[in-house]
Amino acid sequence: MMKRKLLFFTMLCCMALSANACGTDGTHQQTTENEITGGSDVNANDTVVSGEGLFDLTTGENGKPPVITLSSGYTMPVLGLGTYSLHGDECINAILSAIKLGYRKFDTATFYGNEEEVGEAIRRSGVPREEFFICTKLYPNEFGHAEEAIEASLAKLDIGYVDLMLLHHPGRNDVEAYKAMERAVAAGKIRSLGVSNYYIKEMTEFLPKVSIKPVMTQNEIHPYYQEKEVREFMHRNGIVIEGWYPFGGRGYTKAMFSNETLKEIAEAHGKSPAQVILRWDLQHGVAVIPGSSNPDHQKENISVFDFELTPEEMARIDALDRNEKHDWY
Q1: Signal peptide span per the entry (predicted)?
Q2: Which of 179, 211, 217, 317 is the most exposed place for a label (fewest CB within 10 A)?
Q3: What residues does 216 pair with on adjacent strands?
Q4: Domain assignment of residue 110, yes or no
């Protein structure tokens, strides 16, 4: 009988591995198929998120998002400003406006073509550099010459170091590019490393090949595309998941804000649908980087720490999932 039970258990484990299953018993006794080996934590015992990857939002207040400790040992605000499509004075002014409202985390990328503006705004703000958390990304066409791309990014930003650098997408030579980023960490040029648009399959293949575990993956997540299994997988492996397009992305935002469920919940709390969506993300342990150059919208987006969604309200939003991806990656 015992042999049968052991055989049955072994078969289940094999099936789970082949399907990239996400079940876990929540313990840390040993590595399983859901806890991928590879990479290292600088402060593996320094944990500010719960075992399920959820954030302690009680420490935040409007205009001052709470911070979490990444696996690298550095802290990061759970809410920041995305800068995609912002250029020139519009970008600089948007960041300066956001800084006045309490934002300290800003997301850019080499592909965005605005690293110089982001760096200029940080330098002009009058706020000490160490108070900011700046993230940028390398695009796949830079993976083949990553060291040069890293130096070019640092030069454009001109803020001394980068808090977080991501690989923008999986691509040819992504492991080699990441290793170049690891060398930049050793040189003190980058503090934390991560990836973007890596899902369960990509992350499972990637982790054993690198020395420093990514602190984050940045993926498309919104009420119509919730990636529940991906979210749970990343949380189990100690990787923060951050949602870009929290409002559905260009061409979809208006319709999402008109969703009756979101409108009803927003009205019950005296909030906007945008605030409800951001709060829903945060209560699921998903960091967010909504983008806006409008100071009123910026203030609205950072004012989500004076209310809490009930379990019933969370479930109602969870039920909106359509597996409806709004971008190609």
Answers
A1: 1-21
A2: 211
A3: 240
A4: yes
Is the confidence at residue 8, as pLDDT, over 50? no
- Measured between alpha carbons, how far is 33 from 16 in angstroms, rounded to an integer? 7
264 vs 312: CA distance, rounded Å: 13
Backbone angles phi, psi at 116, to 5 degrees: -65, -40
Residue 114 belongs to a domain: yes
Local structure of 69: helix, strand or coil: strand
User: Pick the catalytic residue: 103, 112, 198, 224?
Assistant: 112
Q: Which domain holds residue 309?
A: 37-318
Whether residue 220 is contained in a domain is answered as: yes
β-pairing, 105-107 vs 75-77, is unpaired
3-state helix, strand, coil in the chain (%, to 5): 45, 15, 40
Contact between 97 and 86 under an 8 Å Cβ cutoff? The reply is no
Q: What is the pLDDT of residues 59-78, one digit of tens each?
A: 999 999 999 999 999 999 99
In terms of pTM, does the model score above 0.70? yes
Active-site residue flag, 112: yes
- Give me the helices (H) in the chain, please: 2-18, 88-101, 115-124, 146-157, 174-186, 200-206, 228-236, 253-257, 260-269, 273-283, 295-301, 311-318
Q: How many domains does the chain have?
A: 1
Question: What DSSP line would sit under 87-152, residue for residue?
Answer: -HHHHHHHHHHHHHHT--EEE--GGGT-HHHHHHHHHHT-S-GGG-EEEEEE-GGGGGGHHHHHHH
Residue type, 66: P
SS3 168: coil
pLDDT bin (cut points 50, 70, 90) of residue 250 is confident
